[in-house]
Amino acid sequence: MHSLNEMLQASSWARELSEEDLEFVKAGIAVRTVPAGAFVCMKGEPVEHWMGVVDGLVKMASNWSSGKTTTFTGLSNGGWFGEGSMLKNEPRKYDVMALRDSAVAYMNRATFQWLLDHSIPFNRFLIIQLNERLGQFIGMMEHERLLDTDARLARCLASMFNPVLYPGCSTDLQISQEEIGFLAGVSRQRVNQALRKLEDAGLLRIDYGSIKILDIPGLRSFGE
Q: What's the rounded mean pLDDT across residues 88-103?
């Protein structure tokens, strides 16, 4: 997935729009390149856009002035995010940062509101999206409390293949061990150890700068 058109073709709500309505929506979206390490959006700022990852990898996190930080989730190709903040119309509660150079779609509030008012498929998509995201975060809490590091990292990788949240993600995951560490909240050295265990279990294959996922259900159940 390398263009806005491809991302919209992978989005269930966009496929239901007429050609005229789709062109209207596209006119309300700006695609920006966000360099690695830069903010896609920042905690505390006014929420004026719904966003999606056209191509790349970003993380949703909370960074405190004390220096403490926690990562909530990674967001990969095809994933839209920020609908909760748009619906509540309050300052953003989290930061989103690019882990690598990423193309990000910014849909303005007026277009988002127009879709809410005119598209039943879009509203249905938002309900499903919010429910999936809630399930994802409940699962993260459970994994953090009950699983060891290897199993938590397996779940972290598996979460990037949710077909609802990330319809454009390939099983050839272009991700470095450092990026996985940022998402899972563990050191690069510990990531390497965990990946070796998962590779020995036949769940993935480690390549230079990428990981080939062989068994997504196996990752989701590893350690149980």
A: 91
What tokens were used for 166? Answer: 């990330």
Categorize the per-residue pLDDT at 7 as very low, low, confident or very high, splitting at 50, 70 and 90: very high
Yes or no: say if 78 and 170 are a contact pair by the CB < 8 Å rule. Answer: no
Burial degree of 178 (CB within 10 A; 0-12, 13-18, 19+): exposed
Please tell me the predicted confidence (pLDDT) of residue 66.
66
Domains for the chain: give ranges and CATH numbers. Answer: 4-131 (2.60.120.10), 147-221 (1.10.10.10)
The pairing of beta strand 210-213 with beta strand 57-63: unpaired
CB 216 within 8 A of CB 169: no
| Mean pLDDT taken over the chain | 89
